[in-house]
Amino acid sequence: MLMFYPEIKPYARHQIAVEPPHELYVDESGNPDGVPVLFVHGGPGSGCGKYDRRFFDPEVYRIILFDQRGCGRSTPHAELEGNNLQALVADIEHIREQLGVEKWVLFGGSWGSTLSLVYAETYPERVLGLILRGIFLCRQRDLNWFYHEGGASAVFPDYWQDFVAPIPDAERDDLIAAYYERLTGDNELATMAAAKAWSLWEGRCATLRPNQDVVDSFSNPYKALALARIESHYFVNRAFLEDNQILRNAERLAGIPGIIVHGRYDMVCPLDNAFDLQRAWPDAELQIIRDAGHASREAGIVDALIRATDAMARKFRHDSDNLA
Questions:
Q1: Can you name the CATH fold of 12-139+240-322?
Q2: Helices 175-183 and 221-236, interaxial angle, to 10°?
Q3: 11, 28, 120, 179: least CB-packed within 10 angstroms?
Q4: pLDDT digits over 201-229, tens only?
Q5: What is the DSSP code (8-state) at residue 278?
Q6: Residue in 29, 57, 266, 296 annotated catalytic
Q7: What is the pLDDT, as a whole number, of residue 96?
Q8: Cα(18)–Cα(90) distance, rounded to whole angstroms?
Q9: Catalytic residue (one of 110, 116, 232, 296)
Q10: Which are the contacts of 104, defined by CB distance < 8 A and separation ≥ 6?
């Protein structure tokens, strides 16, 4: 079973101004002349993590990471103004232009798969290939599964009890709206309590087997605030997508090779997301990981993703016409 590539440090860091008040943190590592790959993190609002460069062979890839608006090392922290899907797609294209990349591979998991797919459907001519994990189509039914009673709550009733605890019974018919109200209010104590409960619900459900490292990452107060505020902002606005938009526009992905990695027991984004996407996008190969949930750090997911990046590298490393 393949493991992460060794830890590496960036050879370049950038702070790229986009629409005010936002500035994006971007860094580059690996081979400056290699196959360009953009790591698209999840959430929305999680920011990049310490393992994210390590899915890629640094001898082969020019590895580009960025923190989306309002999270990670981008500023201002947890900012919702001008923070929407269309702006994030424009940010990715701006980064590509700023870094002088002609075409690139996009690697995205969970919300990162959503954003990567919408970018690829908007700019298919800029995409060499897609490596996607834990597909999240952001349909209303996908939001209902995780944030309404009767979906993931039936699998994790103990965790669900903690998730709904900050919300009075009278407001539990729309938990996303109830959380959004608290996460955007003036009561700092209520905001932080809501942020922790929201983020912890996701972290606890993300792995097939309990993983304290993942839970600790989600419950970090700095990350939790951005994740909860930005996710609730996007989800109360239905991710700024028309329902089923990604599948309806999937014909725009024709000719783009893809590898989809999805855990059989993903309780955050159930497998039907990936199954429906692959049927609409025949150029993609679906790999169902039998002993995994949602998180990118589960052993079976890591193995499949690294095999995918290695396969994509073999496909494009000698095609100099496609590189930056």
A1: Rossmann fold (3.40.50)
A2: 130
A3: 11
A4: 999 999 999 999 999 999 999 999 999 99
A5: H
A6: 266
A7: 98
A8: 9
A9: 110
A10: 35, 36, 37, 38, 64, 96, 126, 127, 128, 324
The rounded average pLDDT for each run of 10 residues, N- to C-terminus, in the chain (324 residues) is 97 98 98 98 96 98 98 98 98 98 98 98 98 98 97 98 97 98 96 98 97 93 97 98 96 98 98 98 98 97 98 82 48
Residue with tokens 């679906």: 286
Evaluate whether 314 touches 60 at the Cβ level (below 8 Å): no
The model's pTM is 0.96
The domain spans of the chain are: 12-139+240-322, 141-239
| Catalytic residue status for 110 | yes
| Identity of residue 250 | A
Please tell me the distance from the alpha carbon of residue 236 to that of residue 238, in angstroms, as a whole number. 6
Structure confidence at residue 322 (pLDDT): 46
DSSP 114-127: HHHHHHHHH-GGGE
Q: Are 100 and 32 in contact (CB under 8 A)?
A: no
Distance CA 105, CA 128 (A): 5
Structure tokens at 95: 């980064």
Phi, psi at 294, each rounded to 5°: -100, -30
Q: What letter does residue 64 receive in the DSSP assignment?
A: E
Secondary structure element (H or E) that encloses residue 128, with its range = strand 127-133
Phi, psi of 225, rounded to the nearest 5 degrees? -65, -50
Q: What is the pLDDT of residue 321?
A: 45
Strand partners, 258: 130, 284
Q: What is the pLDDT of residue 113?
A: 98
Q: Is the dihedral of CA 132, 136, 138, 141 positive or negative?
A: positive
